[in-house]
Amino acid sequence: MSESVALNEQYELHVNGxxxxxxxxxxxxxxxxxxxxxxxxxxxxxxCEQGECGSCSVLVDDELVCSCLVxxxxxxxxxxxxxxxxxxxxxxxxxxxxxxxAGAVQCGFCTPGLxxxxxxxxxxxxxxxxFEIREELSGNVCRCTGYGRIIEAVQRVxxxxxxxxxx
Length: 167
Ligand code: FES
Ligand code: FES
Prior knowledge:
This protein is an alpha+beta fold. It has 2 domains: 3-85, Ubiquitin-like (UB roll); 94-163, DNA polymerase, domain 1. The chain contains 6 helices and 5 strands, in the order αββαβββαααα. Strands 2-1-5-3-4 form a 5-stranded mixed β-sheet, with helices on both faces. Strand 3 (57-60) and strand 4 (63-66) form a beta hairpin. The protein is globular, with a radius of gyration of 17 Å. It starts with a helix and ends with a helix. The relative contact order is 0.14. It binds FE2/S2 (inorganic) cluster (2 copies). One FE2/S2 (inorganic) cluster is lined by residues 46-49, 51-56, 66, 68.
């Protein structure tokens, strides 16, 4: 395929409730690349780009995926939610607030992916055991925290939702 053809594709993605045109792209670009480099959504992080670290986690049709492993063009007509779409700026989600309150954020590089993974986990399992939390978040690597405070943050949200009747 010549470069002029390869870099001339146009399509639309549905991201955080908005239709976002993607222009002059190559169909082999990952969703992570398109989100960050073409749509300016820098919250999803790229680290391993091999599906090993979870820093690029987003939701596609409510399913947690590593956006580095998904072709952006394959996500046309699917609903994509990134960390920017979890809550309005200045009004953190309960999961984001719990991570702050529990001291689960240090360098912060893993945090967007872990927040996405936690939202997905608590949608599936409202009251997870510690083992379930560790297992479900095992695809998200954190080099700073030792995971204890991350587990605590997830547990705080589960308890809080239960007490408030949201779970
Ligand atoms: S950058 Fe996607 S899993 Fe590591
Ligand atoms: S807070 Fe630094 S990698 Fe998790």
